[in-house]
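dumping this here before i forget
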Amino acid sequence: MRRTGLSRLAALAAITCASVVAAAVVEAEPRAEFEAGRGADRLSNDFDPWRNDYVEGEYSWLRFAKVRGRLNRTTRFNKTDTETIFGIAHPLWPDAVGQVQVSSSRPAHFLPERSAELGLTQSVGGGLVIGGLLRRREYANSEVETVKPGGEWYFDVYRIAYAYEFSRLDTGDSGAVHSFSGSKYYGERSSMNLVLAQGRGIEKISETRVEVFDTRGVALWGRHWWGASWGVTYGVRHLVQGDFYELTGAHAGIRYGF
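structure:
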């Protein structure tokens, strides 16, 4: 049953990709970027620290068109998962961009065994962009489906955004998270970003348990470039998952583009 559901989403992804290839687009100068970094989190309630090491790369060849791959090696609750992610974004029609992303993790102690995501954004003028995504996550003994509509407003060198993320477990339990974010852009590619979130989120916390938690969090992250080739990615975050744990963490990475 789980494979059938993911197959339907994969088929829809294939249709989206076909539309992507057929779309008429505006050419831009091709660019490749690669990054390697590490994140670490400290948790309350005597949980051991979490860690994530990653490498990623992306290639853009048209305006708003890029492919991206990422490899994560993540340790949580004294267990380690290795996750691979592949995504593509591409213009579909004027002022609209479609996105497809798939992932797989092994041995999937706490990350999804498989996931697939479809997204679409549409500029409606005046700096306003609306859109949403559909996401499906498959664990060994459960599934989570997510719908996430939202909107963004770009003005001067700033961006503000809101998103409503509704997720449902196959058991019938569900949760919704409201997120507000803001960005400031500077230089050719640099930015600083702030995210605030609150609601009820879903997380896998053991080999067999996927739970719904009251959650609230704040994150500050950014990317700063020195010239055209070298940059740094950085971030800090604080997250509360009900009474289960409270988390404070940071990450940093080195990025190279050409």
